[in-house]
């Protein structure tokens, strides 16, 4: 499919550097960067290094439509809270089944990414939730809602590019939104990157496990 939209980023690392340039002047207190895996993990790693903060993942998963699993009808977090797109019936059998499936996936991924570590504690910290782009915004919205419950000092949503629909959804949920581009001609996140390969799961896990959290953590099990 051909898109006439401009390309804003060479790759995820280029996007990460540009985002970090916008976040650095904010002088954020005790920053904790939570990346939405897998695509945002390389971006989160660059930002955490730039801010001298910690890196972990926030685990949310899109809920796919019955007619097309790639079409998002909402998202679920690892506590089981569901964020649905407007017009989606929360009581439908498909939503219940899909939610149960994806919650099981999230719990398995926490075991893999955490390697037995408890979740990082956002309390009293500035938390930056990062994704590589926002199409509907449902996944970021679920991540923001889940993290807000943990009482961060401040909650920032950061993405290189987003649709206006996504920004409208997430802006009330964050204390600040840092987004570099919100083009009108938005079809898919990848159209704004020159190079946008899938991030390998093992690489993402190594990036997260390779960092040691130097701040207090809690076990929410």
Task: Describe this protein's structure.
With 221 residues, the protein is an alpha/beta fold. It has one domain (12-209): Rossmann fold, CATH 3.40.50. The chain is 33% helix and 20% strand. The chain has helices at 12-23, 41-51, 93-114, 138-148, 164-170, 201-209, and strands spanning 32-35, 54-57, 60-64, 72-77, 82-84, 119-120, 126-130, 154-161, 176-181, 217-218. The chain has a five-stranded parallel beta sheet, sandwiched between helices. Strands 3-4-5 form a three-stranded antiparallel beta sheet, sandwiched between helices. Strands 6-10 form a two-stranded antiparallel sheet. Strand 4 and strand 5 (82-84) form a beta hairpin. Helix 1 runs parallel beside helix 2 (41-51). The protein is globular and about 45 Å long. Residues 212-221 have low confidence and may be disordered. This is Phosphoribosyltransferase. Pfam families: Pribosyltran (PF00156). Residues 13-193 form the Phosphoribosyltransferase domain. InterPro entries: PRTase-like, PRTase_dom. Keywords: Glycosyltransferase, Transferase.
Task: List the SSEs and their pairings.
Blueprint: H1 12-23, E1 32-35, H2 41-51, E2 54-57, E3 60-64, E4 72-77, E5 82-84, H3 93-114, E6 119-120, E7 126-130, H4 138-148, E8 154-161, H5 164-170, E9 176-181, H6 201-209, E10 217-218
Parallel strand pairs: 1-2, 1-7, 7-8, 8-9
Antiparallel strand pairs: 3-4, 4-5, 6-10
Helix pairs in contact: 1-2
What is the structure about, briefly put?
The chain is α/β, with parallel strands linked by helices and 221 residues long. It has helices at 12-23, 41-51, 93-114, 138-148, 164-170, 201-209, and strands at 32-35, 54-57, 60-64, 72-77, 82-84, 119-120, 126-130, 154-161, 176-181, 217-218.
